[in-house]
Design brief:
The chain is mainly alpha-helical. It is built from seven helices and no strands. It has one domain: LemA-like domain (de novo design (two linked rop proteins)).
């Protein structure tokens, strides 16, 4: 009879270890999912800041760029689309933000034709603030993508993929560059 008790104790011990392992993996998955959400909220904060700066930048440029109405409207339209995509998922918001980046690039190309505007202190301050925000967005994107990768690895790798499947954990979507112009290597010319 003592052998039966030993077998039962071993089985109970294994069951307890299995439950503890299951709890540990589940908690790691929850932590990783929350880190992904936190990283996304950091991007969201910077994107909102970017969206808030653009109307001031456009308004400052309007007085100088009276003949560039289409460019100004394009930036405003892209900004509104990007702001409206907030909360619709990483992929959709990424596409909207890529459109805004393209519109801003076109805007700054046109600004080069207006030396008075480029010398305006308000415009320069707004441009510097926007550049700083773009850098923060870039860092936040990298942090988000790193967290998404950690979560995705845990969801896909054995044996944690079993727990992830049981509790329906979903892969995090990466925040990727959609605009082909952003992928191009800048051309430097000294001629």
């Amino acid at each position: 009879m003592s052998a039966l008790i030993i077998v039962l104790l071993v089985l109970v011990g294994l069951a307890v270890l299995l439950v503890l392992w299951l709890i540990g993996v589940y908690n790691v998955l929850i932590r990783l999912r929350n880190e992904v959400r936190n990283a996304w909220s950091q991007i969201d904060v910077q994107l909102k800041r970017r969206h808030d700066l653009i109307p001031n930048l456009v308004e400052t440029a309007k007085g100088y760029m009276q003949h560039e109405r289409e460019t100004l409207e394009s930036v405003t339209r892209a900004r509104n689309l990007a702001a409206g995509a907030s909360g619709r998922g990483v992929g959709e918001q990424g596409k909207a933000e890529a459109g805004l980046s393209q519109a801003l690039s076109s805007f700054f190309v046109v600004v080069e034709q207006y030396p008075d505007l480029k010398a305006n202190q308000n415009f320069l301050a707004l441009q510097e603030e926007l550049t700083s925000t773009e850098n923060k967005i870039s860092f936040a994107r990298q942090a988000y993508n790193d967290q998404a990768m950690h979560l995705n690895n845990k969801i896909e790798m054995f044996p944690s993929n079993i727990v992830a499947g049981m509790f329906r954990f979903e892969r995090a979507e990466f925040f990727e560059i959609e605009a082909p112009a952003e992928r191009e290597v800048p051309k430097v010319s000294f001629s």
